[in-house]
User: What shape does this take?
Amino acid sequence: MKKTKYNVAVVGAGVVGIEMLRVLKQRNFPIGELRVFARSSREMDVDGQKYAVKPISPEGFEGIDIALFAGTEGEKGAAVTYAREAVKRGAVVIDNGADFRMDKNVPLVVPEVNSADVKKHKGIIANPNCSTIQMVVALNPIHRKVGVKRIIVTTLQASSGAGKGAVEQLKEENFLIAQGGFGNVRVSVVNKSMPQQLAYNVFPHIGSFGEGDYTNEEWKLVKETHKIMHAPRIKISATTVRVPVRTGHSESVYFEASRPISVDKIKAILAKAPGVVLIDEPKNNVYPMPKDVEGRDETFVGRIRQDAFVKNGFWLWVVADNLRKGAATNAVQIAECVISSSK
Assistant: This one.
């Protein structure tokens, strides 16, 4: 794929697809022709630029070099139906959904962590889950230095992680509660996208419940981290929580290092780590928050401290924009790696 311009397809016109278009433009990706596909045709406006959305078909991928799939999953989803059709026609597929992530023949890539895995692709590269991406960006530099043997993580995930419908549900619930004052914080909306009310509420239920009564979102943090970091022996336990935030996932991450390390050394490692912004002045009320990272591509880390009772145990507070680094930006960064590896 030794070219100066690349024909790109974006599959999906939802929140992630829109963000992919935005990121491609902002990062000056070397696009020759750009095609946008969805189930039906329409015109879409993103930041004042018009895009003609065309119905998806196998033939639509003729001449495409890179196809970014925004992430409709499952047997009826775009990736299962069309990804291999795109590959047959010469495209490299970068899929934001879960369908190919654990396939042994498909690299699962976070460029700051395992960019070399891009070279192993056979036409499809998987983009990890949003909550996994920010955690491994923060932990991998530490793991490379002293090893990480155990992780306990609680995620606090924004409504946008569940799609446009979830954002609208939160907005509608907030409006109804505001109309009724504070006398009643229980509301019922017509367009319910999430299993529980989210406004003025949190609930520990993201994905479907499965093995050991963990959700599939929680198992993603385990299995994807093992694959990305090439570290299957790390013991990982997760609880994923939906919170009334529009965009920006936060994570409380506890880890145990394999060898001794100090808080100052961890801060020094993270201060130099690719894709990480260290914000850690808690006494001045300075730490990462979702409202401040929306629209940013970095992973923000703060509240770094040692566990009071475990010698090599430490805590991190990790925040990132789930639509950008957690989805669209990471996918475009993978595409940039594909280009670089072909030169």
